[in-house]
Amino acid sequence: MMTRRSALFALAGSALTFTARADALKTLSGTVTYRERMALPAGAVLLVRLEDVSLADAPAKVLAESWQQIQGMPPLSYVLHVPVLESSRRYSLHAEIRAGDQLLFTTEEAHSPSEPNIMVTRITASTNEPPYGSWVVQSLKGQAVPDLSQAPNLTIGRDGHVFGSGGCNRLMGQAVITGNALEFKPFAMTRMACIGSGMEIENAFVNALGEVRSWSVDNKGNLILQSESGAGVIVLRSDGTVEAPK
Fold it and tell me: What keywords is this UniProt entry annotated with (predicted)?
């Protein structure tokens, strides 16, 4: 049976454990801004999170996250309480601005914790035209894709048929598109060996396609493929083969 004294010791131990965990967290602060001179809708919120993106072939791990209702014009300040970061791992800051379920702005490039001031890109209003056409990958989970002899690419046909390349192997499959919801069925692929970093990039591309749940187009005409959380996991530009949505 626990006595009053032992209960106090147990509570003290819990408090010490909590304090130690709190002390292990560091404060990371910065700002989020956008280029457009526009007022945001009432009730718009800012989401900022720090992700561990060390594993290219696995979903990013969220380490810290903050939500806040936006008051005033940019730059918008934020504060994250983050764990101790390891120099051997890669981290990226992601930011987005939403009004209800509508994504208004999001990050397209990786921002390391040492670059906490984030520029977000405006997402254009949804169109009735799905993202049919041919697209070339610009970035994967915020990391720019290096110049390759053949960059990862994707063509989405009006019948939902999808084909393209991971940069080394050909892929084909099917896309299910309903409004701005988008999901790819498992792809069939060739199995050629890739040279250099090609295999790592290809694996990251195919795994990111498996995370896609929605799409949008930014004000540059880039296609943003988003995960269930709304984060942009793949950014692609149109190669002009088929007219992209405006």
Answer: Signal
Task: Report the 10 Å Cβ neighbour count for 229.
Answer: 16
* Cβ neighbours around 197 below 10 Å, total: 14
Q: Please enumerate in sequence order all residues whose Cβ is within 8 A of that of 92, keeping only pairs 6 or more positions apart, or say none.
A: 50, 51, 53, 60, 110, 111, 112, 141, 142, 143
For residues 245 and 129, what is the distance between their CA atoms, to the nearest angstrom?
6
What is the pLDDT confidence band of residue 2, given thresholds at 50, 70 and 90? very low
Alpha-carbon Rg of the chain, whole angstroms? 21
Of the candidates 160, 153, 155, the residue with the CA atom closest to the CA atom of residue 177: 160
DSSP 208: H
How far, in Å, CA of 177 to CA of 181, rounded? 6
The SS3 assignment for 196 reads coil
pLDDT in tens, 136-156: 998 888 788 876 567 899 999
Is residue 182 within 8 Å of 212, Cβ to Cβ? Answer: yes
Query: In 3-state terms, what secondary structure has residue 73?
Result: coil
